[in-house]
Amino acid sequence: MPQKIRAASSVHLLALLPHVVGYTPRESLLLVPLVGGATCGALRIDLPRPGEVEQVAATAIGHVLRLPDVEAVVAVVYTDGPVRDGTGVVHEDLVAAVADRADACGLRVVDELCVGSDGWAPYATGDVGALSDIAAADPEPDRPVARAQDDGIALPPAEDGDRKCVARHLGALAALPQDAFRRHTGGARPAASDREIDAELAAFDDDPYAYFAAPAEEAGKTSAARAAAWMWILRSPALRDVVLTLWAGTVDEATRACAWQRQWLDGEADQPDFPVRLAGEGPRPRLDRLRRAREFVRELAARAPRTHVGVCLAVCAWLSWATGNATHAAAYAARAIEVDPAGTLPRLIAGMTNEGILPAWAYDARGAAFGLPPARLAAPETAAAR
Asked: Is 70 exceeded by the pLDDT of residue 80?
């Protein structure tokens, strides 16, 4: 859900924003929409290059206006350089363009602020305050936030011995006569030539949806055999989509998606007559589930051989996009395409982030929230979100 906050002053708002979005923005414009007098999420935009100011301002305000009942907006520029240049506060042209677009759409701009390497300032006066003012107003000084919007993309470390063990288990799975989706939907269920993998297959066969749900519901150590089983599952595009549907929705939704996938593979499916989670449709998912699932799949990607790392990175990309984190989504998608140029899911995600397309639930919790922290529309060929 969007995090609504009330700030007593501009400096208190600047102290709160890194906690709202989860990081300290760099070289960014942050638009903070106001609903009922409280902030409701944030939209982060890369500072535009020359010639892109008007386009970025128009696109950003367009996205803000998709938030139901939005009344006003606060504009905050974050720059790595000084707050002032020779003529005034930096990036005044961008802030003015945002204000003009907002005014034309009947949206009030209630504050315009800049944070730089040497302080902060309101655009209205240009008076520079100390960064220590912001630090002193921090309501949670002991709560860490990422240093920048692209922190946390690097995969966790993995040991060579563990990777070899995972690869050995994958060899046993590769020898099975059919992929994970066909096994799940009624195909033959032979044992593998690997006792640990057979235990995973037994759990998979006995209660598949409980098996699929576990990574989104609980964090914990994943054995090499279970990691290999999950790489095998995610490498089946049809079953991968069923799993993503479950992580974003319910067992009923996943069951319906599975039935449609089976019909589609048999050449019998019409267009889906239900919300397609993969496309960002339906009510807003629980972010804690998606984030746990993403950490799980990031670990898989770190442990995967090259044959399976591409699909793991693609799933990381989708999970990032689904939580409104298109900066990470674009990075994971690019890495997945580099590893596996033929992959369709990472190309789909790269296209959506490039076009600034966010899930419908990023604007409205009912599925039509902007409040996912935060959407990023970079200018203009890399439009992507926190």
From this structure: yes
Assess whether pLDDT exceeds 70 at residue 378.
Answer: no
Looking at CATH, the fold of the domain delimited by 4-137 is given as Cytidine Deaminase; domain 2 (3.40.140)
Strand partners, 116: 119
Backbone φ and ψ of 234, nearest 5°: -70, -20
Tens of pLDDT, residue by residue over 168-178, are 999 999 999 99
Q: Residue 161 carries which side chain, given as an amino acid letter?
A: G
pLDDT, position 365? 62
User: Rounded CA gap, 104 and 102, in Å?
Assistant: 5
Chain segment 5-20, per-residue pLDDT in tens = 444 589 999 999 998 8
For the chain, what are the domain ranges? 4-137, 160-362
Tokens of 224: 């090499």
Q: Do 190 and 176 contact (CB within 8 A), yes or no?
A: yes
For the chain, where are the alpha helices, taking DSSP H only? 10-21, 53-64, 92-104, 131-137, 160-174, 180-184, 195-206, 208-217, 224-234, 237-248, 251-265, 287-303, 306-322, 326-339, 344-354
- The residue whose two tokens read 């490498």 is 235
